[in-house]
Amino acid sequence: MRWTLTRRQRPTGDHPPVPLRIPVEGPWTAHNSPADKVPSHTHSHAQTYAIDLIHHPAEGPEAPPFTNLWPPARRPEHYPTFGQPVLAPADGVVVATAHRMRDHWTRSSLPSYAYLYLEGFVRSLGWPCHLWGNYILLDTGDNVVAGFAHLRRGSLRVRPGDHVRAGQHLADCGNSGNSSEPHLHFQLMTTADPTTAQGVPFTWHYRLGTQEPRTGVPSNTTLFTA
Predict the structure, then answer these.
(1) How far apart are CA 132 and CA 97, in angstroms?
(2) pTM (2 decimals)?
(3) What gap in Å lies between CA 185 and CA 189, rounded to an integer?
(4) Rounded CA gap, 148 and 157, in Å?
(5) Quick check: helix, strand or coil at residue 81?
(6) Which regions form coiled coils (predicted)?
(7) Where are the domains of the chain?
(8) Which of 37, 95, 182, 222 has CB atoms 3.0–4.6 Å from 79's, for a disulfide?
(9) Nearest to 88 by CA among 5, 15, 161, 186
(10) For residue 29, what are the β-bridge partners?
């Protein structure tokens, strides 16, 4: 059943990329980027062009390293991404939210990362909040809905029906749902139902070091400034 639904969510590829502002500020790295492969994640849940963002502060401690065995997991508060503001990439209307999922410990070792694969499969069979954790869906118009996932429990500043402006603080990054460590999962889709919608591509303006601003999507492990 999941395979059949995923096939139906494969985009036709004729939707032009939607220009948006980046939903974070400061230095970040891109992971699972559509700049490297499509689908970047999977067609399921309209994640064809989704991207994951991890914060890298210019000053202060970096995220703890991945280990072979010990410690098997860490508290999300030990990661600089945890608690970072998530911003609206465009004007829009909030159409759905989830806010009660806990921020679990990270999957920061080989045993816990193996567990993550089984956990992710089980989560994908449930409601979107089981996979995405706490999330916000923002209708930006023209049949485009922006999705923000793995948000921190208790950090949401909006609720369904709210009108927001580009750059407005919506919530904070967390580690809820199917997440190995605190990060922001961002995607665009054609409707507010992630089980039937199709993914939509997007473009950002970003900078690599002191280079001139670029338009597009940063590739995997690229350190960029929003």
Answers:
(1) 11
(2) 0.91
(3) 13
(4) 13
(5) coil
(6) none
(7) 2-8+19-58+75-194
(8) 182
(9) 186
(10) 54, 223
Lookup: tokens for 83: 């608690």
Calculate the CA 55 to chain-centre distance.
12
For residue 224, give the 3-state DSSP assignment: strand
**Domain spanning 2-8+19-58+75-194: which CATH class is it, in words?**
mainly beta
* 124, burial (CB in 10 Å: exposed 0-12, middle 13-18, buried 19+): middle
Q: What is the mean pLDDT of residues 15-27?
A: 96
What are the DSSP calls for 86-143, one per residue? EE-SSSEEEEEEE-----PPP--BHHHHHHHHHHHHHHHTS-HHHHH-EEEEEEEETT
Q: Which of 159, 146, 179, 129 is nearest to 46 (CA)?
A: 146
Alpha-carbon gap, residue 54 to 138, rounded angstroms: 21
User: What are the pLDDT digits (tens) for 89-143?
Assistant: 999 999 999 999 999 998 888 877 787 777 877 887 778 888 899 999 999 999 9
Check: CB of residue 27 under 8 Å from CB of residue 58.
yes
The pLDDT of residue 25 is: 96
Q: Which amino acid is at 111?
A: P
Residue 30 pLDDT grade (very low, low, confident, very high; cuts 50, 70, 90) = very high
